[in-house]
Design a protein that fits this description.
This protein has 592 residues and is of the alpha+beta class. The chain is 32% helix and 22% strand.
């Protein structure tokens, strides 16, 4: 039986082979008969053949052209995921741990790696990050925060309320030496359960929740590290593990001199990020000691964007880049030290405010900024246009000084009882502040006030600012999303024993003190507004400072960054609010 099957298979195979051979022979004969043997007749028919070929080419060309023309109607260029985003920032990387991150490079890396309980959206409104919801009790002292479900660290471990408590234990520890410690003094943090955290304050503080935005760190990786060693642990610079949209890949330190040092911190997308995997494949943060080196790297197409330039360099043309300007919730002001002669005279301070022309200064700046007219920003809770400073009234200012006995002497400078109207204006050595100070110097000279501009290098400026060693100082203060300006204008903050001594004007007013205290301890917005009105009215009358403008943060990129919107931010790192949705690549996509 098997033998018969084999014979049948062989006969079938031979038949198929013969059939294939016959087909091949027929094909060869056909090609020779119908093509080779008829080539001599081509001369008689070449014109019709060429005509048909040309017609076919024209038809195909028209179809392609029509398709190209119509594609604009059914296809659009849209952003697509993928790509490597590389940003240059002036500064050096020192610590990714959010408990310690302070400079722009550190905060950028930290914000991408670590999520906080809350963050600010593109309308500068507080929204949940790790937090799903929160509530406050009737006393205004207890805040309860509920975490989102299924939160994960980059190593796959679950993120719980215990991690939140551990983070604030580190911040509050004097041995850990966190720069955030003073903000958390006296606050108790406890885990109610795995997903709930309770914050108990010693006193009501309406602005408290606006400060709960720092990144959370993993207890399971850091709990065994002594508090005194927390700042220098390898986790901070070599192997940080967070819960943010991007994960640590590595760091590459260049071999340049200290003046030209560079670093590259590589990050990759975290697929289990609570809001979804990032659209970018990777995010690279490059730190540059030299601003010139950073600008050169940008011009050489090594960088996608530059972050934090004070102004647009001449080598970067606006037409060749996308310039994004983000207003900061901050104010650039001239703070008059009210304890020093002649600025201890309220009439003098009011005259200086009236004689100043902030609009002229803003116009002279090489970029657009919004004016600031009082200690609370326009659009914030409590802002009241009735109490804006009246500026650009030189004649009125001169008349008030004449009436107060400040007479102009032979050299054009006013004096009263042997005291000249003269003071120093300390500034940091930046093009922006040199320009502003020069403008003010001329405006006040027209009033009869001599201003000596004191340009200080960075380190000296910081020391003098901390010690209040100036007559007046041109400086920018961060206000934030909530208008609680207690630290800048309450008399207790002028005391040398205060923690930061941020009352730079050394302003003292019982009315202002009471209003500031009431404004920060009441939760109801309507009541806070009423309390702040008393403060604004007194502040305008006393003129402890001259409000100038609201500074901005400059972001320059070679092309549009989809997902990055121009909006008000509280600090530079807030620009990264939606970094998980940023896109830099585009492609033609058929409309649905």
């Amino acid at each position: 039986m098997l033998h018969k099957l084999k014979l049948g298979f062989r006969r079938k195979w031979r038949a198929q082979k013969q059939q294939v051979g016959d087909v091949a022979e027929l094909s060869s004969d056909g090609f020779e008969r119908y093509f080779i043997q008829r080539l001599h007749k081509f001369g008689k028919v070449w014109r019709p053949v060429i005509g048909w070929l040309v017609l076919m080419v024209l038809v195909i060309g028209c179809l392609l052209a029509q398709n190209q023309a119509l594609s604009a109607y059914y296809q659009t260029r849209q952003p697509i995921p993928g790509g490597v985003y590389t940003v240059g920032i002036q500064g050096s990387f020192s610590n990714a741990n959010p408990v310690y991150a302070t400079n722009d490079v550190d905060k950028t890396v930290s914000r991408l790696l670590f999520s906080g309980l809350f963050k600010y959206d593109n309308h500068n409104k507080l929204v949940g990050d790790l937090a799903k919801s929160w509530e406050i009790d009737d006393t205004g002292k207890v805040y309860t925060v509920t975490l989102r479900n299924n939160l994960r660290w980059h190593d796959g471990q679950p993120l719980t309320a215990q991690d939140v408590v551990f983070t604030y234990d580190v911040i509050q520890s004097p041995d850990a030496e966190s720069p955030l410690r003073n903000n958390w003094a006296g606050i108790t943090v406890e885990a109610v359960d795995e997903h709930t955290v309770k914050f108990t304050l010693p006193n009501p503080l309406s602005s408290f929740i606006y400060g709960v935005t720092n990144g959370i760190i993993p207890k399971h990786l850091l709990s065994k590290v002594p508090m005194e060693g927390m700042r220098s642990v390898a986790f901070n610079t070599q192997s940080p593990v967070g819960s943010g949209p991007f994960m640590w890949k590595g760091i590459d330190v260049g071999d340049g001199t200290p003046d030209h040092a560079q670093e590259s911190i590589g990050l990759v997308g975290f697929p289990d990020f609570w809001a979804g995997a990032p659209k970018l494949k990777s995010f690279v943060v490059r730190g540059f000691t030299s601003r010139a080196d950073m600008i050169n790297a940008y011009n050489q197409q090594e960088l996608t964007a530059i972050s934090g330039l004070p102004n647009l360099p001449a080598s970067i043309k606006p037409d060749d880049s996308v310039v994004t300007s983000m207003p900061l919730t901050a104010e650039t002001m001239v703070f008059f030290r009210t304890s020093a002669t002649p600025l201890n005279d309220k009439t003098v301070r009011n005259a200086l405010v009236s004689a100043a022309n902030p609009a002229d200064i803003i116009k002279a700046l090489p970029y657009g900024v919004s004016p600031a007219r009082e200690p609370i920003l326009k659009g914030q809770l409590g802002y009241d246009p009735r109490y804006i400073q009246r500026t650009n009234h030189l004649a009125e200012a001169a008349k008030s000084l004449d009436k107060a006995g400040w007479e102009i002497n032979a050299n054009g400078i006013r004096a009263k009882k042997g005291v000249q109207l003269e003071f120093s204006l300390m500034i940091s050595n930046t093009p922006e502040y040199r320009l502003v100070a020069s403008k003010l110097q001329k405006q006040w000279l027209a009033l009869g006030a001599r201003v000596n501009i004191d340009i200080e290098p960075t380190q000296n400026f910081r020391e003098n600012l901390s010690n209040h060693q100036y007559g007046a100082v041109l400086y920018g203060i961060a206000i934030g999303a909530d208008p609680d300006v207690f630290v800048y204008w309450h008399s207790s903050q002028a005391d040398i024993r205060s923690v930061n001594r941020l009352n730079l004007s050394e302003y003292k007013s019982k009315v202002a003190d009471e209003a500031l205290e009431a404004g920060r301890t009441r939760i109801e917005p309507a009541i806070r507004i009423i309390k702040y009105q008393a403060f604004l009215k007194q502040w305008e009358a006393d003129a402890p400072a001259l409000a100038l403008y609201q500074p901005r943060y400059l972001y320059v990129s070679h092309k549009k960054i989809y997902g990055l919107e121009e909006h008000v931010i509280n600090e530079p790192a807030d620009r990264l609010y939606s970094a998980n949705n940023w896109m830099i690549r585009t492609a033609r996509v058929t409309n649905q």
